[in-house]
Amino acid sequence: MSFRGSRFPVPGGGKTGAPVTLVNHPVRYDGEAAEIRLPPQRLGAQTREILAELGLGPAEIDALARDGVVRLDGT
Fold first, then answer.
1. Where would I find the H helices in the chain?
2. Helix (H, G, I), strand (E, B) or coil at 7
3. CA angle centred on 46, ends 33 and 20, rounded to 5°
4. Is 61 helix (H, G, I), strand (E, B) or coil?
């Protein structure tokens, strides 16, 4: 199976303004691929929220990030 990527500039330029390559949406609607309108979130964008929902406290989450177990947005 092969995938075709879509290249488009990150809105707002992102950190580098470089194009992002994404895998096309696998489902077709009336023979057309779904449009990719937004770039993916940065790695770790919701890590803190997810770990908090699982019951971890702020200090535990910070320790996991400090030890390199998880990545938080911007770290």
1. 47-53, 58-66
2. strand
3. 40
4. helix
Residues in contact with 32: Cβ distance below 8 Å, sequence separation at least 6, in sequence order: none
Q: 21 forms bridges with which residues in the sheet?
A: 7
Residue found under tokens 């895998």: 23
What is d(CA 49, CA 46) in angstroms, rounded to the nearest whole number?
5
CA 17 – CA 20 distance, rounded (Å): 9
Here the tokens at position 23 are 């895998």
Q: In the structure encoding, which two tokens stand for residue 61, read together?
A: 């989450």
In angstroms, rounded to a whole number, what is the distance separating the alpha carbons of residues 18 and 4? 19
Lowest mean per-residue pLDDT among 13-17, 32-36, 43-47, 55-59: 13-17
